[in-house]
Amino acid sequence: MPEGLELPKSDPRQVVSKSLTYLENNRTRMNYPEYRRQGLPTMSGLVESLIKQFNYRVKGTEKFWNRPGGIEAILQNRAAVLSDDNRLVNHIKNRPGRPFRRYKKRKSAKAA
User: Which CA distances in Å does 93 have to 7, 21, 98?
Assistant: First the structure.
């Protein structure tokens, strides 16, 4: 590419030049045959799958991530729901507060 020539970012020569610079700068990190021999993953599919599972299982409507302690509480509850032990049942039985709210009966207007 001629010096001093300004090309738009979408110009094919600019794209190729940027790609070559990236490959040259990261050549030492791209030893894929060695990574395969070691049994290491060379694709991002495993991480993307994990993120998708996390989003499906943990995120959703009516889950408030911005409240203090909200993330930890959601993760603990989701772990309890997904576990095969009695963690969720024990949590519900022993959680602070009351699972039911009982209202006092009001005296009816007719009885007064």
Answer: 67, 60, 9
